[in-house]
Design goal:
The complex is a heterodimer of chains A (365) and B (271).
Chain A lengths: L14 E10 L2 E11 L4 E5 L6 H9 L6 E6 L2 E2 L10 E4 L11 H11 L4 H14 L15 H13 L5 E5 L7 H18 L2 E6 L2 H7 L2 E6 L2 E6 L1 H6 L4 H6 L3 E11 L3 E6 L2 E8 L7 E7 L4 E4 L6 E10 L3 E8 L3 E8 L12 E5 L5 E5 L1
Parallel strand pairs in A: 3-8, 3-9, 6-7, 7-8, 13-20
Antiparallel strand pairs in A: 1-2, 1-4, 4-5, 9-10, 11-12, 11-14, 12-13, 14-20, 15-19, 16-17, 16-19, 17-18
Chain B lengths: L1 H32 L17 H8 L1 H31 L7 H9 L6 H15 L5 H26 L3 H9 L4 H30 L2 H6 L6 H11 L5 H28 L2 H5 L2
């Protein structure tokens, strides 16, 4: 996942953010954020709007200045350097292509600013057009392109400068789902081909999970959890992260037993066994997090788990969501894969529900 | 329903006809008079002649006034547009007293021309600047066209998508380059339209000019002197020529402005 950090420049982060704080009037956009982004990594800043992710990206790009703290790019403190003195390039949320220039002229702009020779520019623009699959569109005007093509021009215009770090400010937000999924593949392919560091800002958890090597989940100007997508998905450190990524059941109760990393939660007189996140002591209030797809539905004849009654079955395309009321009156949702025959349970059925203790996390409230 | 509406429809037609007659019949009269073969300006219409057009174009003083007006128009439009553009750009940044700047820019529009004229005359007299085409009339014209130029340019600059500039800076362009390569090409049609608009304003200005021009003449000043001091049967012909010239400049301005707003469409389409 991170093989390139062992190559040249090992040990030096692509971007190092140290205790960065930024206020806009009364609101604190970033509250002492620290972060190391490795070379060649596809890194995502994920969070709801207003969490500070875009501000952090704009500080790295030089469009905003931090009130305090430091930003190092490839080991160099960039301080108050304006964007044109940084080896970063940004893909803007609304792309910000130059409407009066052609596709080629848009892409060549950065190279012209660096006084690259004409023949070299032509060669590089040709290469990058090939990379983003727009070979025949060089002479087009921007307003003659489709949404997806504009997206690729924006990517090419940034990448042709071979930036140390590519900053992506929710550039796919405006596309429809189909095109967005297509651009995900495209971005992954380009990232693999180029091998430079990508930092993506997004509020779309699916996008972050599919694309990233690592994700920083942000909320209220702070990083809540940092880790690989698998990490964050299966071991959310608190309710916010669990809620923000994927869909999960939250069961409020109190800790019945806790050892080093295993524990039991009592809710409605029922015991839920799982792993614990952080130190918990017996009797304290806590919440169990169980992902929809980790709750299995078994026939009533089974002896495992809890007995339950099906209250709702909803079709969700590739899956079904089954809502049950389990022992102790606890309502739980299970997501099960759909099959051609549809789902095996129906409203009012008596069933049993079960989960593996590793997939249930007990969190401090 | 049609029956009930018809008296209203009739009244409306009459109203509209009266409305536009009031506007355009005098102008039409001017047009007719310019071809009237009579040594006194006025009716009755005798026979048609193009004689007055011939006399109009061969009047040396008028020609001199025309050259003055065109020069003055070009220079004051250029200065006025440049100042308005820099003011509009400056207002994008944090400025002290920013809220007061726009009203102060626009105030000269509502000051009566006579007042401005007198005040300027007194001011130039006190500062010992002799009146004439340059510099007194130029200064007055710049201060006259500037607020209008500002009002046409400000919305265009204010509405300019700043992320386009950020993108250029991100790609290595310094602020000057950003302006020359990105911002100016995009607002050029608006700047051109503003320039033409300012030119026609300067070309038509009479009241303020009359006070500060001294012994020299612009076209409106010359026409005024003709009307008041001598019989000028070719005056309607001059009026028609000027009207057509002004209309064509305004038409060019209008079409560039339309093209300018059409040029903004792609930006919205990027979303």
């Amino acid at each position: 996942m991170n093989a390139s950090s062992t190559s040249a420049g090992a040990g030096v982060s692509a971007v190092s953010v140290q205790h960065v704080t930024k206020r806009f009037n009364e609101t604190t956009a970033l509250d002492g954020v620290s972060l190391e982004i490795r070379r060649g990594e596809f890194f995502s800043l994920l969070g709801p709007s207003g969490c500070g992710k875009t501000t952090l990206l704009r500080i790295i790009g030089g469009f905003e200045e931090a009130d305090s703290g430091e930003v190092l790019i490839a080991g160099r403190n960039v301080g108050a350097d304006p964007p044109y003195r940084r080896r970063t390039n940004m893909i803007f949320q609304h792309l910000a292509l130059f409407p009066h220039l052609t596709v080629s002229e848009n892409i060549a702009f950065g190279l012209e600013m660096k006084k690259v020779s004409r023949t070299e520019i032509d060669r590089k623009v040709g290469d990058i057009l090939k990379l983003v699959r727009l070979e025949d569109y060089g002479k087009r005007k921007i307003d003659e392109l489709s949404g997806g093509q504009k997206q690729r021009v924006a990517i090419a215009r940034a990448l042709v400068n071979e930036p140390e770090v590519l900053l992506l400010d929710e550039p796919l937000g405006a596309l429809d789902l189909q095109l967005r999924l297509q651009m995900h593949d495209e971005l992954k392919r380009i990232h693999r081909a180029i091998g430079s560091t990508f930092i993506l800002v997004t509020h779309d958890q699916t996008e972050a999970i599919t694309l990233s090597d690592r994700i920083a989940v942000m909320n209220a100007g702070q990083i809540v959890q940092l880790g690989t997508p698998a990490d964050i998905y299966s071991r959310p450190i608190n309710r916010f992260v669990a809620n923000f990524i994927g869909h999960a059941n939250f069961i409020d109760g109190e800790v019945a037993a806790a050892s080093e990393n295993k524990g039991e939660l009592r809710a409605g007189g029922v015991i839920f066994a799982g792993r614990t996140a952080g130190a918990l002591r017996s009797g304290q209030p806590a919440t169990a997090v169980l992902r929809y797809e980790h709750l299995r539905i078994l026939p009533a004849s089974s002896s495992a788990g809890l007995s339950a009654v099906v209250e709702d079955v909803a079709f969700h395309g590739s899956s079904f969501r089954v809502t049950v009321r389990a022992e102790g009156g606890i309502r739980l949702v299970s997501e099960i894969a759909g099959s051609e025959d549809g789902v095996q349970v129906k409203l009012g059925d008596a069933v049993r529900v079960d989960w593996r203790p590793e997939s249930l996390t007990i969190l401090d409230q | 329903m049609t029956a009930a509406r018809s008296p209203w429809a009739f009244a409306r037609t009459v109203y509209l006809a009266a409305f536009f007659s009031f506007f355009y019949v005098p102008i039409l009269t001017l047009f007719v008079l310019s071809f009237n073969d009579s040594p006194v300006m006025g009716f009755p219409f005798k026979t048609a002649t193009t004689q007055w057009y011939g006399e109009a174009v061969s009047d040396g003083v008028l020609l001199r006034a025309l050259i003055n007006s065109v020069q003055l128009g070009l220079v004051s439009a250029a200065i006025g547009t440049a100042l308005a553009l820099s003011a509009a750009i400056g207002l994008r940044y944090r400025l002290p007293f920013k809220k007061g700047v726009i009203p102060l820019m626009v105030l000269p529009i509502i000051l009566p021309g006579v007042v401005t004229g007198v005040v300027m005359l007194v001011f130039f007299g006190l500062s010992g600047v002799s009146t004439g085409l340059w510099p007194t009339t130029l200064i007055v014209h710049v201060s006259w066209v500037l607020p209008f130029a500002f009002l046409t340019l400000y919305p265009r600059i204010h509405g300019f998508d700043q992320t386009i500039e950020e993108a250029a800076m991100d790609l290595g362009a310094r602020p000057t380059t950003v302006f020359l390569r990105i911002v100016f090409p995009l607002i050029r049609p608006a700047v051109l339209a503003t320039f033409l608009f300012a030119f026609t304003l300067s070309f038509d200005e009479f009241v303020r000019t009359f006070f500060v021009i001294g012994s020299q003449r612009t076209v409106p000043v010359h026409l005024w002197i003709l009307v008041t001091e001598q019989v000028a049967p070719f005056l309607p012909a001059v009026g028609v020529i000027i009207m057509l010239a002004t209309l064509s400049v305004a038409a060019v301005g209008f079409f560039t402005m339309t093209r300018a707003s059409a040029g903004r469409a792609p930006r919205a389409a990027q979303q």
